[in-house]
Amino acid sequence: MEYLIAFFAFILGAVVGSFLNVVILRLPQPEESIVFPSSRCPQCKKELPWYDNIPVISFILLQRKCRFCKVNISWQYPFVELTMALLSLALFIKIGVSFSFVIYFVFCAALLAIIVIDYHHQIIPDVISLPGILLGFAVSFFNPLVTWQQSGLGVLLGGGALYAVAAGYYLVTKREGMGGGDIKLLAMIGAFLGWQCLPFVIFGSAVLGTIVGVGAMLKQKKGGKTVIPYGPFLSVAAILFLFFQEVIQHYIIMLYMPPV
Fold first, then answer.
1. With 47 labelled, which of 68, 70, 122, 186 sits at a CA distance of 20 to 30 A?
2. With contact defined as beta carbons under 8 Å apart, do 90 and 243 qualify?
3. What is the three-state SS of 98-136?
4. Contact present, 41 and 68 (Cβ < 8 Å)
């Protein structure tokens, strides 16, 4: 029975991942609706039949080409579908069938959409982060994994910490180093995971950002003017904390309280 539920968790994630691809494509376009019209080819605008919308499988059967215009389908589509499917499965293994599963399924879906949108457009839509802050805090009253006090402090300290970093960077360099979207994203992460996630998320995202940033500087050859979106690093660090927080907190405690 457990394997059957795990299978359905995987399928649920893949189906939601397919919808996330629509969100990722249309949300940055103010004139587009994420509901209407139904799924269509971004190139020829032909409406796609249901059998061309089966997550991952249709991509394979169509050999990565639109049935109508034969233009290549982006690898992003199966990547998002498969990633959401694996996140859903991992959540089931970690949390099981519970209200917390629903909470963090929504959280992971929001982060995955933010990762791809910020990567392509260097924006974090307020329509995701602002309702996410309110939702994360609201469900904390029923969330057995995070108290409302931890969630409230997560919002205040998360948004405040990045605002302080952004303000300090601007004072030193006179350049915008971090957008308001990143500040609201960290507040959302704090709402869902509590204030205790913030040291790791801030430090982990900085390490990831530095590694990728150095590579981008070498590739773009723009030096300190190289621009990379920071939202994906915050989101990945938050996902890592969600799944490995016990191990992370163990090592944080060991770091600051070494054995005598």
1. 122
2. yes
3. CHHHHHHHHHHHHHHHHHHHHHHHCCCCHHHHHHHHHHH
4. yes
Measured CA distances, 127 to 104, 105, 110, 131, 249 (Å):
18, 18, 10, 6, 31
Please give the Cα distance from 211 to 55 (Å, whole number). 32
**Mapping DSSP to helix (H, G, I), strand (E, B) and coil, where does residue 47 land?**
strand
pTM of the model: 0.90
pLDDT exceeds 80 at position 167: no
State whether residue 72 is helix, strand or coil. Answer: strand
C-beta of residue 116 within 8 angstroms of C-beta of residue 74: no
Q: Using DSSP, state whether 175 is helix, strand or coil.
A: coil
How far from the centroid of its chain's Cα atoms is residue 29's Cα?
19
pLDDT at residue 166 in the model? 67
Nearest to 140 by CA among 154, 126, 130: 154
- Concatenating the DSSP letter of every residue in 77-90 gives HHHHHHHHHHHHHH
Strand partners, 47: 40
Instruction: Please check whether residue 14 is in contact with residue 105, taking contact to mean a CB–CB distance below 8 angstroms.
Output: no
Are 87 and 45 within 8 A, CB to CB? no
Cα–Cα distance, 243 to 95 (Å, whole number): 10
The per-residue pLDDT for range 128-160, each reduced to its tens digit, is: 999 999 999 999 999 999 999 999 999 999 988
